[in-house]
Amino acid sequence: DTGVSQDPRHKITKRGQNVTFRCDPISEHNRLYWYRQTLGQGPEFLTYFQNEAQLEKSRLLSDRFSAERPKGSFSTLEIQRTEQGDSAMYLCASSLDPGRVTEAFFGQGTRLTVV
Amino acid sequence: AQKVTQAQTEISVVEKEDVTLDCVYETRDTTYYLFWYKQPPSGELVFLIRRNSFDEQNEISGRYSWNFQKSTSSFNFTITASQVVDSAVYFCALSEALENTGFQKLVFGTGTRLLVSP
């Protein structure tokens, strides 16, 4: 399968614990995005990478959140000191950079439940 | 600020009925892109269509068709002869075309859940 893959698919954690999610984009895609989706809502933008550079961050991304994309390949999203409000689906997407806006392809997401 | 409104929270139809999902957007940009995505129960967002603001031609792809009307800021999606497999949540999204950086942030609507029964 050559789509966007995310791991784990589900994560249950206790409040206050740290969690880390991984995203493997489509191999030739140099743009990578993280979105968060809560129940009954559309996805909301969190952050964007062009290769290994993190170029945009949403105000939703508090200082407890950190994202990396070493070597411009896979990406990780870490949440420190999780809170119940962090419970959501975390979606990763990737797209090509052919010099114009293109569609983003999404993974199946990681569903986080903070208890 | 950009905004996408999908006023229909949930639509139920019987198989073979036609159904239209509404999408109204707000933007001050003259250049922008509109998208539709499908989210089946598995959770993955499946890309359906991308349309730029300069192309107002309607598009048809099999049973799917899209009606883009700039005058009313709408980008509606019609499924003809619906099937049970069309059951999913459908999202309309809007992005800015920041060509100098290549960055596109998608602003999504709240989605319309379509239930197609046999």
Q: What layout of secondary structure does this protein have?
A:
The complex is a heterodimer of chains A (115) and B (118).
Chain A: E1 5-7, E2 10-13, E3 19-24, E4 31-37, E5 44-50, E6 53-57, E7 65-68, E8 75-79, E9 88-95, E10 105-106, E11 110-114
Parallel strand pairs in A: 2-11
Antiparallel strand pairs in A: 1-3, 3-8, 4-5, 4-9, 5-6, 7-8, 9-10, 9-11
Chain B: E1 3-5, E2 10-14, E3 19-21, E4 24-26, E5 32-39, E6 46-52, E7 59-61, E8 64-69, E9 74-79, E10 88-96, E11 106-108, E12 112-117
Parallel strand pairs in B: 2-12
Antiparallel strand pairs in B: 1-4, 3-9, 5-6, 5-10, 7-8, 8-9, 10-11, 10-12
Descriptive account of the structure:
The complex is a heterodimer of chains A (115) and B (118). Chain A has 115 residues and is mainly beta. Chain A has no helices and eleven strands. Chain B has 118 residues and is mainly β. In chain B, 0% of the residues lie in helices and 53% in strands. In chain B, the strands form three sheets. In chain B, strands 2, 5, 6, 10, 11 and 12 form a six-stranded mixed β-sheet that branches. In chain B, strands 3-9-8-7 form a four-stranded antiparallel β-sheet, with no helix packed on it. The mean pLDDT of chain B is 91. At the A-B interface, strand 4, strand 5, strand 9 and strand 10 of A face strand 5, strand 6, strand 10 and strand 11 of B.
Report the structural category of chain B: mainly beta
H/E series of chain A: EEEEEEEEEEE
Radius of gyration of chain A: 13 Å
Proportion of beta-strand residues of chain B: over 45%
Q: Give the averaged pLDDT of chain A, no decimals.
A: 92
Low-confidence regions of chain A: none
Order of helices and strands of chain B: EEEEEEEEEEEE
Question: How much β-strand is present in the residues of chain A?
Answer: over 45%
Largest interface (CB within 8 Å) is between:
A-B, 31 and 28 residues
The termini of chain B sit apart by: 41 Å
Count of DSSP-assigned helices of chain A: 0
Measured as a percent range, the helix fraction of chain B is: under 10%
Kindly state the number of beta strands of chain A.
11
Number of helices of chain B: 0
The major pleated sheet of chain B works out as: 6 strands, mixed
From the N-terminal CA to the C-terminal CA of chain A, the straight-line distance is 33 Å
Main β-sheet of chain A: number of strands, strand sense, barrel status? 7 strands, mixed
**Which radius of gyration of chain B do the C-alpha atoms yield?**
14 Å
pLDDT average of chain B, as an integer?
A: 91
